[in-house]
Design a protein that fits this description.
Elements (H helix, E strand, L loop, with lengths): L2 E3 L2 E3 L1 H51 L2 H31 L10 E6 L7 E6 L3
Antiparallel strand pairs: 1-2, 3-4
Length: 127
């Protein structure tokens, strides 16, 4: 027996069977796609294992990357210290009034002219 909704006949048994068929198709499609989903999972697992093996090989071949970075950083610090030690006399000539370790925001230069006023100029760095 048909029900009339908005002027159209609607059979509740047919509506229920159509809904059940749609749900059954979704479940069947999911069951059929399980091998594909499993295959994609296996491929992803193989990719992760390959990346791990490549990382182990690189570590065996080239050594510990963290130790290499630490050696490079220490070498850079030594070069900077040597460069600072070589530049110390120039620093004293330019402006000995700056304390070592203080941050500079500009270049300070004091110019003294005979029989004139002492001029202090601070040139700011434009960022």
């Amino acid at each position: 027996m048909a029900l009339y909704i908005n002027g159209r006949p609607v059979n509740p048994i047919v509506t229920f069977l159509a809904g059940a068929a749609v749900i059954a198709c979704m479940i069947g499609l999911g069951i059929l796609l399980l091998p594909i989903i499993g295959g994609l999972f296996v491929i992803a697992l193989i990719a992760v294992v390959c990346i791990a093996l490549y990382g182990a090989w690189c570590r065996w071949r080239y050594g510990d990357p963290f130790a290499q970075m630490q050696k490079k950083a220490e070498a850079m610090m030594r070069r900077e210290e040597q460069a600072e030690a070589a530049d110390e006399p120039r620093e004293e000539r330019r402006g000995g009034d700056l304390k070592p370790g203080t941050a500079r925001t500009g270049i300070r230069r004091t110019t003294t002219v005979e029989d004139a006023v002492v001029v202090e100029e601070i040139r700011r760095k434009d960022i």
